[in-house]
TrEMBL record:
Gene3D superfamilies: HUPs (3.40.50.620), Riboflavin kinase-like (2.40.30.30). Pathway: Cofactor biosynthesis; FMN biosynthesis; FMN from riboflavin (ATP route): step 1/1; Cofactor biosynthesis; FAD biosynthesis; FAD from FMN: step 1/1. Residues 183-308 form the Riboflavin kinase domain. One of its GO terms (biological process) is FAD biosynthetic process. NCBIfam families: PRK05627.1-3, PRK05627.1-5, ribF. InterPro entries: FAD_synthase (IPR015864), Riboflavin_kinase (IPR023468), Riboflavin_kinase_bac (IPR002606), Riboflavin_kinase_bac/euk (IPR015865), Riboflavin_kinase_dom_sf (IPR023465), Rossmann-like_a/b/a_fold (IPR014729). This is Riboflavin biosynthesis protein. Coiled coil: none annotated. Its EC number is 2.7.1.26, 2.7.7.2.
Length: 309
């Protein structure tokens, strides 16, 4: 997959099959669109193209909205899209100036002149251009004029509920990993580097890798203990993870701590990807480190059962 960050650098393609959107999380609704884009491109010996935007438009248009958390960083989004076999990814820097681009200008300057779009495939709720004026109906009415076909992909439902990035965020914020993973079509994950900790875990036989907090707008699931998979150096390890303030030791700052089962070794400085499988319990304060240790033994057993399933 070729990643292009400037419209001016985009090559003229012979038969571009294009989709556009923020694609936060690349969930199963997005995946349905991507599969159709790739299918149509192969049918015509064309090229599959995804247009996405960074930063997330809401972060630019509503900077005071500090509550917005994202399912994927731009690096994660690139890798997620790459895994589906997309040929070209155009990342358009989203600015206030770009937000004032009319739908007509978007069509003529980007879809037609820059990319040579022959087929445009969009989700049922996708809008583009200034004030979100560009809809499926808007596009369909002008597609013949500009020489491309427009196809709309209907909503993806799970248990009669429409899948959306917002619903996945809400699930993660309450620790409902099962729902989030079902809507994502894979485990929710985050990637971070191991940094120096205070080594309290070692004193109770549960050494942990202390992960640096991810970028400010990356969503961290709610405080609690999780069964997870931890991957580094291409190796996947069973692990359990605590997210929280560590009230038993009077902690004041949010920590992300991962204990790898049946592993010994130095992890400092390594980059680890954590995949969330299930929340085991909420974080709570224990009367002593001994009581915490007993609970962690129980958590370890529960983790082994979850990851074997």
């Amino acid at each position: 997959m070729k990643v292009i960050r400037d419209v001016a650098d985009f090559p003229q393609l012979s038969h571009a099959v294009v989709t556009s959107g923020t694609f936060d999380g690349v969930h199963i609704g997005h995946q349905k669109i991507l599969r159709r884009v790739i299918e149509r491109a192969r049918q015509s010996n064309g090229q599959s193209v995804v247009i996405t935007y960074w930063p997330h438009p809401r972060l630019v248009l509503f900077p005071e909205d500090n509550d917005l958390k994202l399912l994927s960083t731009i690096e994660e989004r690139i890798e997620q899209l790459r895994s589906y076999g997309i040929d070209y990814l155009l990342i358009i820097p989203f600015t206030k100036e770009f937000s004032r681009t009319s739908s007509r200008t978007f069509i003529t300057d980007i879809l037609v002149r820059a990319i040579n779009t022959k087929v445009l495939i969009i989700g049922y709720d996708h809008r583009f251009g200034k004030n979100r004026e560009g809809s499926f109906e808007h596009l369909r009415a002008r597609s013949a004029q500009y020489g491309f076909e427009v196809e709309e992909i209907p909503r993806q439902d799970v248990d009669d509920v429409g899948v959306s990035s917002t619903k996945i965020r809400r699930a993660l914020e309450v620790g409902d990993i099962e729902t989030a993973n079902r809507y994502l079509g894979r485990h929710y994950s985050l990637t971070s580097k191991v940094e120096e900790g205070d080594k309290i875990g070692r004193t109770i036989s549960f050494p942990t890798a202390n992960l640096a907090l991810p970028p400010a707008h990356k969503l961290i699931p709610s405080n609690g203990v999780y069964a997870v998979w931890a991957t580094f150096n291409g190796e996947r390890h069973a692990a359990m993870m605590n997210i929280g303030l560590r009230p038993t030791v009077d902690g004041k700052q949010l920590r992300l701590e991962v204990h790898l089962l049946n592993f010994s070794g130095d992890l400092y400085g390594r980059t680890i990807t954590v995949e969330f499988v299930e929340q085991l319990r909420k974080e709570r304060k224990f009367d002593s480190l001994e009581a915490l240790q007993a609970q962690l033994l129980s958590d370890k057993h529960a983790t082994e059962l979850v990851l074997r399933a």
